[in-house]
Amino acid sequence: MERSHLRTRIKFCGLTRPGDVRLACELGVDAIGFVFARRSRRRVEPEQARLLRQALAPMVSAVALFMDTPADEVRRVVRIVGPHLLQFHGSEDDDFCRQFGVPYLKAIAMGGALGDRGEEALFGAFPGASGFLLDSHASGEAGGSGHAFDWATVPAGLSRPALLAGGLSPDNVHDAIRQVAPWGVDVSSGIESAHGLKDGERMRRFVEEVRRADLPPRD
Ligand SMILES: O=C(O)c1ccccc1N[C@@H]1O[C@H](COP(=O)(O)O)[C@@H](O)[C@H]1O
Question: HAMAP family in the record, alphabetically (predicted)?
Fold first, then answer.
């Protein structure tokens, strides 16, 4: 697929240890996600996330992930952690997502029943979103499953930034980027040794594979 950008952005999600945050920054990732979704095994408390955020290098963004989280809880995280971006995975609408005064990404469920998958059908309900995350869960289900969806269902030539997510790993991210040419990639399970515990070698290989996919094709 043709690319409109020179570099695929990388977001590592579900980090729970300062050492993992520091290594991710050394490897050159663009954003780190902290999970506040109630059902997640990677969930961190706001005070813990505040410490993790302090381990971030300059110019690396902190992303706070929610799934149908009450607005007062989101506000508390915004106040204590100070994320650069919010990421919503549930049935939140555009008004809900915008009310916190922080730019937001909306996760779009790419699993389950296939309907109209044009850009307007996927993104049209979220004019206030800074970008999107195309994840493998079905509507109403949680993400972070480690399962990929059919990348062929991503419409070509998206005009708004979209991160490809769901089941990415060092073993498939090169092919995913070459097939979809996403604005960015987002990974959690594929760089873990256990839920919330990232594996240094898998993190390093993931970044190397993204960089390899970004090289111009040889003649
Ligand atoms: O990580 C979680 O526990 C989680 C919980 C609820 C909603 C989303 C969640 N994670 C997001 O899902 C994508 C894909 O994860 P994976 O790579 O397939 O494990 C991940 O990037 C998070 O943004």
Answer: PRAI (MF_00135)
| Residue 59 burial (C-beta neighbours within 10 Å; 0-12, 13-18, 19+) | exposed
* pLDDT tops 80 at residue 68: yes
* Tokens read off for 13: 């999600």
Spacing, Cα 165 to ligand 1 middle (Å): 8
- Point out the ligand 1 atom lying closest to the alpha carbon of residue 33: 23
State yes or no: pLDDT of 168 exceeds 70.
Answer: yes
| 187 vs 209: CA distance, rounded Å | 13
Mean pLDDT of 142-160: 87
- The model's pTM: 0.95
Closest CA to 10 of 176, 196, 184, 168: 184
26 SS3 class:
helix
Nearest-angstrom CA–CA distance, 68 and 176? 29
Ligand 1 centre and the CA of 145: distance in Å?
Answer: 6
Domain 9-110+117-150+163-214 has CATH 3.20.20.70: yes
Whether the pLDDT of residue 5 is over 80: the answer is no
Cα–ligand 1 centroid distance for 218 (angstroms)? 34
Q: Outline where 17-104 has alpha helix (H).
A: 18-27, 46-54, 71-81, 94-98
Contacts (Cβ under 8 Å, ≥6 apart) of 72: none
Residue 140 has pLDDT above 80, yes or no: no
72-96 average pLDDT score: 97
